[in-house]
Amino acid sequence: MENITNQLQKIESLLPKIDVTNNQVSKASVGWHLEHCLLILNSSLKGLTMTDPKDYKPKFSVKKFVFLNFGLIPRGKIRAPKQFIPLEVPTQESILKLMSLTKERLEAAKNLPEKSFITHPFLGDFDKKTTLRFLWLHTNHHLKIADDILKK
């Protein structure tokens, strides 16, 4: 969880640069990537609280194994589901609001059973530890894109 906490600090540090774009890297702004990460974090952390650990059914998948062990997410190949696409142009206020909620939910996740889980639409069930790894990898992917946007 401390890794995600560090990522949240990085997101906060990028707030002054949310309007920066670089179409050679991404069609979306730095702020879009930050808000997208926070939407995924919030939804997944909330999802952990809404499942019954008795229903957890892990299944092996090569895609899941490669992603979780190597962190490979191809850029521009996977489209975010609609509920994880920022509706408006991200603002510092919208990002800070999501950030606050993320911190609360991350803290609450510490007390959840280890078999609390989410079901990823492509990769299946993730227990709490795997969910946190997924969230770190996903956020890291978008923070790298934000860094590349800012390199222009």
Automatic annotation (TrEMBL):
Entry-linked InterPro entries = DinB/YfiT-like, DUF1569
Source superkingdom? Bacteria
In Swiss-Prot or TrEMBL terms, this protein is called DUF1569 domain-containing protein
Stored Pfam families: DUF1569
